[in-house]
Amino acid sequence: MFTRRRMLTTALAATVALGALGTSPAILMAQDAEKTVKVGLIAPMSGPWARQGDLMLKGARLAIKDVNDAGGIKSLGGAKLELVEVDTGDTAEKAKNAAQRMVSQYPDLVAVTGAWLSSFTLSVSEVTERAELPMLTLSYSDQITSRGFKYIFQLPPTGVIQAQTAMPALMKVAETAGAKPMTTGIISDNTASSTSFAKPIREGALKELGIELKFDQTFTPPLADATALVQQARSHRPNFLIMLGTAVPDDKLLLEKVNEFNLGGGRMPIISSGAHMGAPELLKNVGAELLEGVMTVVGNWGAKGQEEIIQRFKEETGEPWMTQDSISAYGDIQLMAYALEQAKEADKRKVAEALRSVDLEGSDGPAAFYPGSGIKFDEAGHNTRANLIIVQWQAGEPVPIYPPESALAEPIWPSGG
Predict the structure, then answer these.
(1) From the centroid of its chain, how far is CA 24?
(2) What span, in angstroms and rounded, lies between the C-alpha atoms of 158 and 140?
(3) What are the residues whose beta carbons fall under 8 Å from the beta carbon of 105, sequence distance 6 or more?
(4) Which stretches does DSSP call E strand in 257-402?
(5) Cα dihedral 207, 211, 214, 215 sign
(6) Tens digit of pLDDT for each residue in 349-372?
(7) Which of 149, 88, 150, 148 is nearest to 119 (CA)?
(8) Mean pLDDT of 166-173
(9) What is the CA radius of gyration of the chain?
(10) Residue of 208, 210, 161 lying closest to 182 (CA atoms)
(11) Which of these, 113, 220, 394, 396, could form a disulfide with 288 (CB 3.0-4.6 Å)?
(12) Residues 163, 158: Cα–Cα separation, whole Å
């Protein structure tokens, strides 16, 4: 018979047993309430791309704070997110080694975002794929989602899609300003993202628009001297210049040489790709006058509808604006939290399943932090509802000018074009 005395005896025995293990029921309850779930950010935090990694880190940390302040992962009893921060270093090989250490040292990671440079993402994702660890990325290279991987999730449009979409949009910007560009030239580094963006331009996009390619120069970063590259622009004087770097130091050298050859300040419209061209230190190192009118095509940016998070980011970090690196990292952490809520389990495979099932339209949930019509991944892991943003330097600040639903300013075509 289960008497009251027997019930008390059983409860006492359980308490004694827990005491022998050094854990009281109250402590167990507290531990459950303090449960954390590890998510990762792997990005360059040293070397020439360290600034971009720093901006990603600031966005990710703010998202961690916001998720935890809002009660954590509710389907996991309010579990808090904990950010694991990993430096890729400055080469693809170092990035791969860092990823191997990450999955070895943190086997309980449920998802990771990174690795900024497409070359690094290609290396890192080989490791995360083998570990069955879902990886979200803002990198552009088409190769990222063309390898049959099941644990990679690419949020922005690929480089090819960006180039195919951006060139007609940029020509509309020019036409609105009364210009009709007929000639261009390309200066590009040979990294995966730049190559991916330039490929469709070289292979037919310009011809379809009736634009003649006057010269095509490629360099390997880091750049030591930009003279020979920009000399081509001075010699051929195209109506606009496509300038595709990936690092702020290279951008600085190129823009300074453009200015030295009396082509800057709007005399020759410059179109770039990537968030590095909108980095705050570029303004400090180059100056607002030389940057005026420069445009860059990005997969994300602090834009219309995100004013509240942009303001809080500026207050929390002291940064003057919210670049692609920060808003994407912020959105990726929010998307991980969303997937964890759906998975109801802190398990990387369950989180991957939840990500594959994401079907968000418009600005629902974490989709509010990405441009486009929502988030839905195809079998390759690419977001089929993604859109690009074109950002332009105006009065010392890079502001979104396209598409209209994201724009915070009217586009201009530099008068020299």
Answers:
(1) 45
(2) 5
(3) none
(4) 270-273, 295-298, 359-361, 374-376, 389-394, 397-402
(5) negative
(6) 999 999 999 999 999 999 999 999
(7) 88
(8) 88
(9) 24
(10) 210
(11) 396
(12) 9
Is 90 exceeded by the pLDDT of residue 9? no
Q: Name the one residue in this structure whose structure tokens are 């005026």.
A: 292
Instruction: Copy the structure tokens of residue 11.
Output: 């409860």
Which long-range contacts (C-beta less than 8 Å, at least 24 apart) are formed by 400-403? 400/301, 400/302, 400/303, 400/304, 401/173, 401/295, 402/169, 402/173, 403/169, 403/371
Hey, which residues does 393 pair with through a beta bridge? 398
In this structure, the strands spanning 240-244 and 270-273 are parallel
For residue 416, what pLDDT is reported?
Answer: 56
Rounded Cα distance, 106 and 415, in Å: 54
All residues at 6 or more sequence positions from 234 whose CB lies less than 8 Å from its CB, including other chains = 261, 263
- Rounded distance, CA 406 to CA 169, Å? 14
**Contact criterion met (CB below 8 Å) for 49 and 246:** yes
Q: Do the strands 295-298 and 270-273 form a parallel or antiparallel pair, or are they unpaired?
A: parallel
Distance CA 90, CA 341 (A): 35
Could you tell me the two tokens for 351? Answer: 């989180």
Q: What is the mean pLDDT of the chain?
A: 90
Per-residue pLDDT tens for 291-342?
A: 999 999 999 999 999 999 999 999 999 999 999 999 999 999 999 999 999 9
CB 38 within 8 A of CB 82: yes
The pLDDT, as a whole number, for residue 11 is 44
Joined together, the tokens standing for residue 397 give 């600040």
Q: Residues with Cβ < 8 Å from 114, sequence gap 6 or more?
A: 40, 41, 42, 43, 56, 86, 88, 120, 121, 124, 135, 137
pLDDT at 19 over 70: no
CA-CA distance, 80 to 69, in Å (whole number)? 9
Q: Are 135 and 114 in contact (CB under 8 A)?
A: yes
- The rounded distance, in Å, linking the Cα atoms of 167 and 169 is 5
Eight-class DSSP state of 290 = H
